[in-house]
Design brief:
By secondary structure, the protein is α+β, with helices and mostly antiparallel strands. The protein has helices at residues 3-14, 20-34, 46-64, 72-87, 102-120, 129-152, 156-173, 183-201, 207-230, 259-262, 385-390, 408-417, 424-436, 446-450, 457-466, 471-484, 596-628, 633-649, 660-671, 675-690, 699-713, 717-725; strands spanning 269-275, 283-291, 296-298, 303-305, 320-329, 336-337, 343-347, 354-356, 361-363, 373-381, 441-442, 468-469, 489-495, 499-500, 510-515, 519-527, 531-534. The strands form 4 sheets. The protein has a 6-stranded antiparallel beta sheet with strand order 7-10-5-1-15-14, with no helix packed on it. Helix 3 (46-64) packs antiparallel against helix 4 (72-87) and helix 3 runs parallel beside helix 6. Residues 6-15, 203-213, 235-248 and 557-600 have low confidence and may be disordered.
């Protein structure tokens, strides 16, 4: 076959129309790689993005079906620009086609607003129309680039690497547990994309190509999932910078869905507290009083702008204890500002923040807590034990007493536990002591394993039966059980006191570091003349509420270490247990339990490394098997291509212009290949290429000839191992198939 015929065959192959199945799965892979972004940005951008990707890929496919395939990129770019124009937010005049002086300023303002939204947004962020437009435009560009790589350049494996990289970006920007559900569609679409590409390249080989492509794609998909699950949790956390939004930050879900946040493998410092009050206070972020049986809802109501000073606190009949602290938010974003209860003075916070008068939490709709530095003074009730026991049930909003229909076990247990209580305070203390008395254990995993990871009435009933859970279950169960006794309660979401970072400074102040692991929920009950009193039912966390008895001089007895009020715990008592407290010994001491997450991460990395190392061998073996399983005349051509790849793996210089007979002669004379076996394969491929009809080459005969030739070309065991592990034929492709 002369050079002119070779060029003609190559040109005919390049003119082969684009495969519709390959184009379809490439478009689906683009969308699948963007799905993990829904964890970071609420997916209101998804419908318009699907539309954009669909029309861009359809335009490119339509042009690739013609003789003018080189124009496909321009067609996709034109459709992409049209989509961008159609979806452009109303704030920007649509004068890109007809230039206008307003357009540059409008686009600049749009991009500036989007950038500010990203910097200060809280994940999951509800995007503005501008941010949704930017996401759609970016995914449209990805569709253009990947269509060019997969369809024009015919490099689907390279496109697969791009898809996997894009899909990992959200989990790297916002450290979080990666969900495999996002990567299953991606793995499947990559598998089917590679399968379609293989069939489009050489339809003569039939089913064998499909099997080989499926093996390769399955490996790529497995690598994608393992990489997504194992790598992000083990990456070092970037350093936070004030004003940065999506990056190394965390936020609070104010509806008590704290399980996913608490189970994050990587914990980061969210704020620092400096105070000379003797111990760091609990910091409240949101208060939840309304309970419909399924979820607790954050309180709403009258707001007071903090610029003019904080509203007066509730009048009470007992003494107050006063404290002051400076708070520095390092990695916490959101529309809530952590403050102790009850905050009475606030410095360093602008007018963007307001206080909910009913519960004295700070909220905003136009700013973020990230980077805030402020000083807060609080006053908390400080009654004696006698005053607390004399207090009746206080008046509170109706939602603090409202109860949905409950499983009978909740009310029965509440009545049983508090049967000996003489006062509301005694009943609350009895409930607190029951939860902390050893019958319950702290566990982040038990609610997931037992299927009650929530705060609804069914989850409470299951928790009271299993008696293992975390702060959400303890707090919601305490609050609901107290309501069955007629005591108003609510649940608070915030942070436990932090851990001291060093000894006291010269002014007596101590700096405490508060991490995302100290995210917490606790209940409060309302007592007449005292107000809202916090309790700590969560086993092994904080210190339980226990007001001290009055002394003869009218004061209180000295505070003993085991009798600190819950709002003034010792620094070490506030740390969240890293192990399951239920694993303690008979004396109640906690025994460090094995945390499997580190081992699983190491195993995942090892599996990923093995897959990467084994990938060339598996791909090469699958290709060899596919060729030997080809049928009819295609087997002779496929077996010859396998012989060519074997020669390339052995280091033989194979030229595309060389005929099978010339290459076979060179393998015999220069490389010592068995002459009879080479002649058998040369004759078979020549008959398949030029004869009108040819006998089918038996698979066993072809396999035996290939095996003997390979041993001759690679006589040493080490050489064969090297050729198997690092086959050159996967990289060196002289395109001899065009000559057959």
């Amino acid at each position: 076959m002369d050079a002119a015929e070779l060029r003609a065959r190559g040109a005919e192959r390049r003119r082969r129309p684009a495969d519709p199945v390959l184009a379809l799965w490439t478009a689906i892979a683009v969308l699948a790689s963007a799905l993990p972004l829904t964890r970071v940005v609420v997916p209101i951008w998804l419908p318009q993005t699907v539309f954009t990707v669909a029309v861009v890929c359809a335009a490119g496919y339509a042009v690739r079906r013609t003789r003018h395939r080189a124009w496909a990129f321009l067609a996709e770019a034109a459709v992409w620009i049209a989509c961008a124009m159609i979806l452009l937010p109303a704030s920007v005049p649509r004068y890109l086609v007809v230039p206008s002086p307003q357009t540059p300023r409008a686009v600049e303002a749009l991009l500036g607003a989007v950038w500010d939204e990203v910097l200060h947004g809280v994940a999951p962020l509800r995007p503005s129309s501008g941010l949704a437009w930017v996401i759609t435009v970016a995914v449209g560009l990805l569709a253009i680039a990947m269509s060019h790589v997969a369809l024009t350049a015919r490099l689907p494996l390279l496109a697969a690497v791009g898809f996997i990289t894009v899909s990992l970006i959200p989990s790297l920007v916002v450290p979080q547990r990666v969900e495999a559900v996002f990567f299953v569609p991606l793995a499947v679409s990559i598998l089917l994309m590679l399968r379609a590409d293989t069939r489009a390249r050489d339809p003569r080989t039939g089913v064998g190509h499909t099997a080989s492509a499926s093996v390769v794609a399955a490996i790529v998909g497995a690598v994608a999932v393992v990489a997504a699950m194992a790598i992000p949790p083990l990456l070092p956390q970037p350093v936070a910078r004030p004003g940065s939004g999506f990056g190394p930050t965390t936020t609070i879900d104010a509806d008590l869905d704290l399980g996913a946040s608490l189970r994050q493998p990587a914990q980061t410092e969210v704020l620092q507290v400096r105070t000379a009050a003797g111990a760091a206070p609990y910091l409240r972020v949101a208060t939840l009083s309304s309970f419909d049986g399924e979820v607790w809802t954050p309180d709403t109501g009258a707001l007071t702008a903090v610029g003019g000073g904080l509203p007066p606190v509730e009048e009470i009949a007992v003494e107050r204890e006063r404290g002051t602290a400076s708070v520095d938010i390092t990695r916490l974003t959101g529309g809530y500002l952590p403050v102790p209860y009850a905050a009475v003075e606030l410095e360093g916070v602008d007018d963007a923040w307001s206080m909910l008068t009913a519960n004295r939490t700070l909220v905003t709709n136009s700013a973020s807590s990230l980077g805030a530095e402020y000083t807060v003074t609080w006053e908390r009730p400080d009654p004696t034990r006698e005053q607390a026991q004399a207090a009746a049930i206080g008046e509170a909003p109706e939602q603090a007493l409202a109860l949905p229909e409950l499983p009978a076990v909740i009310g029965e247990l509440a009545a049983e536990v508090t049967a000996d209580a003489q006062t509301p305070y005694d009943a609350l203390r009895a409930l607190q002591g029951w939860f902390r008395g050893g019958a319950f254990r702290y566990s982040l995993e038990a609610p997931v394993a037992e299927g009650f990871d929530g705060s609804g009435v069914d989850a409470i009933a299951d928790f009271l039966e299993v008696r293992a859970g975390y702060c959400v279950h303890f707090a919601s169960s305490f609050a609901v059980m107290a309501r069955t006794l007629g005591i108003p309660t609510r649940v608070v979401v915030g942070y436990l006191p932090g851990t001291a970072t060093g000894p006291p400074a010269d002014d007596g102040s101590v700096t405490y570091s508060v991490t995302s692991a100290q995210l917490h929920a606790w209940p409060e009950a309302h007592l007449e003349g005292i107000g809202w009193v916090p309790f700590e039912p969560t086993a092994s966390l904080g210190v339980p509420t226990n007001f001290l008895p009055q002394t003869s001089d009218g004061g209180q007895t000295p505070v003993e270490e085991d009798e600190r009020p819950s709002d003034a715990p010792t620094p070490t008592a506030s740390a969240r247990p890293s192990t399951d407290p239920g694993a303690g010994g008979a004396d109640g001491a906690e025994v460090a339990a094995w945390d499997p997450r580190g081992a699983l991460g190491a195993i995942g990395i090892a599996i990923l490394a093995l897959l990467v190392v084994a990938l060339p061998f598996v791909v090469r073996s699958a290709r060899r098997s596919r060729r030997l399983n080809a049928s009819g005349a295609a087997r002779s051509r496929a077996v010859w291509l396998e012989l060519v790849d074997t020669a390339i793996d052995a280091g033989v210089d194979v030229r595309a212009s060389e005929s099978p007979r010339a290459l076979g002669r060179r393998l015999v004379t220069q490389c010592g290949a068995p002459e009879a076996d080479v002649a058998l394969l040369v004759g078979a491929v020549e008959r398949a290429s030029y004869a009108r009809a040819s006998d089918e080459l038996p698979a066993e005969t072809a396999a035996g000839a290939l095996r003997r030739i390979r041993r001759a070309l690679l006589p040493g065991t080490a050489e064969r191992a090297r050729a198997s592990a690092l086959p050159r034929s996967l990289v060196v492709r002289p395109r001899v198939e065009d000559a057959l």
